[in-house]
Amino acid sequence: FSFVRLCYPGPDLEFSMHDGTIRDLAFMEGPESGGAILISAGAGDCNIYTTDCQRGQGLHALSGHTGHILSLYTWGGWMIASGSQDKTVRFWDLRVPSCVRVVGTAFHGSGSPVASVAVDPSGRLLATGQEDSACMLYDIRGGRIVQVYRPHTSDVRSVRFSPGAHYLLTGSYDTKVIVTNLQGDLTKQLPQTVVGEHGDKVIQCRWHTQDLSFLSSSADRTVTLWTHNP
């Protein structure tokens, strides 16, 4: 699809600013508009579009990526992280609005497209899931890559920090769901546990907002609720 439709109790709103497949959507509570801002991105012109949901008006077209955008994440009321097939993560600040930092994935070798991104609740640590089966941890405030490791054997399509950021949940096309323990020196080898497995590719994983339980969705046409008992 190359359009966005919002369904409210009132009339539906439809936006057609994209000229290619929309890969990801996210909401941000923005003081700028007095309500929710919709963030959307994907293929085509590789722009990120922001839309005032209450007024039904476009706000910004954020350009900079040179490949399809595969993943979006918002935090802090103003900040956006976007992962792309151009093998970069870009940080955006809607107060500017412009790209404020570019992070490449070429830690060893030529890098890899970024299929998923997430930022921990403190806004200090970025995690990426990449098509080469790697995950990257990046210190946002320090501006440095902390570690690149490979918990999976295929594309990592979903990364999410647990509510307290003690664990990183990852889902992959290798059909596995893995939890990585982040309670320790992040530059050392990180303990990993396979906490679930599907019959086909894992598409998305999401933690419960408070408990150490999570959902995973898969190409095997199931959504599964799991509990993590560390």
Automatic annotation (TrEMBL):
Keywords of this entry: Repeat, WD repeat
Signal peptide: none
Pfam families associated with the record: WD40 (PF00400)
SMART domains for this protein: WD40
Protein name as annotated: WD repeat-containing protein 47
Highest taxon of source: Eukaryota
First and last residues of every WD repeat: 62-102, 107-148, 149-183, 195-230
Species of the source: Characodon lateralis
Transmembrane portions of the chain: none
Coiled-coil residue spans: none
UniProt-listed PANTHER family: NEMITIN (NEURONAL ENRICHED MAP INTERACTING PROTEIN) HOMOLOG, WD REPEAT-CONTAINING PROTEIN 47
